[in-house]
Amino acid sequence: MLRVGLLFLLLSTTSLTVRAQHIDSTETPVDAFVDDVDTATATGEAIAERLIELQARPVDVNAATASELTAIPGLSLLLARRIVRHRSRRGRFSSPSDLLTVEGIDPQQYRRLRPFITTSHVVPKRPDAPTRPEPWSAAVRDAEIRTAYRWTRRLDLGRGYRPDSARTGYQGGPARHTSRAEITLGERLLAAAALDKDPGEAWRWDMTDRAPGFDHVAGTLAITDVGPISSIIIGDYTVSAGHGVALWRGPAFGKGRNAVDGILRDGRGIAPFASTEENRFFRGLALRIGTERWLQDRTWMPVASISSFISRRRLDASIDDRTDPLEPPWTNLSNTGLHRTPTERANRDAVTESVAGTLIKLEGKRWSVGGAALASTVDRRRVPRNRPSDAFDHAGRHLRIASLHAIVDAGPSILSGEIARGPGGSLAAVGGFAYQGANRVDLALHARHYAPEYDNRFGFGFSETAPQNETGLYLAARVRVHDHWSVIGYVDQYRFPWLRYNMPRPTTGRDVRLIVEHAPRPWLKHYVQLRTETKDQRIDGHTGPSPLATDGVAPETRSSVRWDVDYAWSDRLRLGTRLESVIAIPPGGSDTDRDKAHGTLLVQDVEWDVFERVRLIGRVALFETDGYEARLFAYERGPRYAFRVPALFGRGERSYLVLRAELTEHLLLEAKYAVTRYDDRVRIGSGRDEYVGNRVREVDLQLHWRFP
User: Fold this and answer.
1) Sequence-distant (≥ 6) Cβ neighbours of residue 522 within 8 angstroms
2) CB-based contact 470:477 (threshold 8 Å)
3) What is the mean pLDDT of residues 525-549?
4) DSSP letter, residue 504
5) Cβ count within 10 A of residue 72
6) pTM metric for this prediction
7) Where are the domains of the chain?
8) Weakest mean pLDDT among 101-110, 286-295, 541-550
9) How far apart are CA 405 and CA 353, in angstroms?
10) What residues contact residue 400 under an 8 Å CB cut-off, 6+ apart?
11) CATH code for the structural domain at 2-56+142-707
């Protein structure tokens, strides 16, 4: 703790003496959206990839619909509809900065949106008429090719990579290989592919076993404006509708520092997919037909669209051959995407899933209504595991889902909701309200209910865990106290009406967060965050009289305070400092020092443009906690598309250095070296990843090529 305190004092003194100029950073602000993700989940990686893709292909605010605009991080559904309404009344935006004329968009919010937006150069004769399709000749002239190759390796390996006579260890090498390729012809055509081999997976070049070298292959071909068809996608794609209660495949933003804007959703329909995320996508054919271009002389009429899709792909699943040796069923799907060991490889592609679905939407200037329906069939029947928490999980081969969703735009406020019918007639519903007026106060309210029987693997609605067996109420507010001061906060109260895994009775939870942001200068901004989470957990060692004993659960509380500052020392040097402290009280513990687990984290970041085309990004993080219960997290920068939020606990330090060098106008090299050292242990990790030593080193290399 002494060294943490001394370094904090030094860095604080340095930050107070800073005098700097404004730096126009184009770095994608991933940390604002994934900084609180506990582990490097597939969802978090998909969010990081989505932000990078948005920056590479910004959204055209002169042509995008309100639902397409909501895919931009930090842009609420209410503001997205205001942008569309402003465009309809006053004509198209001549430049991105014209968004400042839209009610509710201030300079600070515009700076957050700027990396993800652009304005088209095609201006129709009438200001309120839709943009005509880009001619193919112009699209070919705008052709662009992007490729990337990434190699990642942990240098200090666990015992899973040692020679194993029983062949129970990892079957492949420790490096991760990822390749990406993308060809675009303006706005008319996109062809993209992503290939990925995780650490521990073996190279297998057997096409009969669906193994083309890389363990995961995704590819898509998307074409827009093909006769009456607005868009058609062949290959891999995602589908999102409404609030995501019935259908949402792809990334979604939830609770975080941006507490107000991302809560109400409006799915953007079908979208091409070429990502390393191995689960949340469809594979087949999808198309959309819309009336936007057919109503050029009748803009008062609502816009109608219909999207249909079919998909067939193989899924990883756990097979239970003890129940029926002749036709063994599956118990649950595997979402890790890892195929390193014989057991993981046996679960690979164990189930074949066929899906067909339709989306319908009718949208006016102040309202929209829509519906989604899908039918899924798998070639093996499902038998849920025999445990109380799985009592309501869907069994069988067939799954049918249908939903209705609506939005009512009332100017300074907006109402939205969705209701869905799932397996066995089970119901799920969400409703939301948002307000943003001229009084510097923004509000958001979201209510949700997912029945215990609502077992829908295609949904991804706003929830604390999976959108099943949960009822909750979320309230958020943002107050712009001054031009440079904002106060943001939310309260999320939820309940699980049936048993969760390893819980002997229904449980409850509460999440409260308060953030005070201050940006006194263009080169200086900081915030203070207070957060407390309380969730019922099982008491270790409890031996109640029955599985439903009411005294086997007690609240677990985790409270934290964070101060984060970002400041520019000069045009080429940017610094950032974070100090965070956490206190964790275990289930059944009391508010005494004997039961509390404390943790402290100090992070110092440096971003230095050494030369015009060379940038260095570094970090030193010191942490000291009483155990895993007081773990701390901090999103790490790295090569593009990389995602890392390590859990830091114990006593030690983690540091890394990232090099970004533009070798030529078209070639970019990125390299990262990271090391974690512990002062309180001689073994790191567990299971096959256990390593004997007190440090872990990692290397990450990535090469990008773009033409022209």
Assistant:
1) 22
2) no
3) 75
4) S
5) 22
6) 0.89
7) 2-56+142-707
8) 541-550
9) 26
10) 373, 374, 375, 376, 423
11) 2.40.170
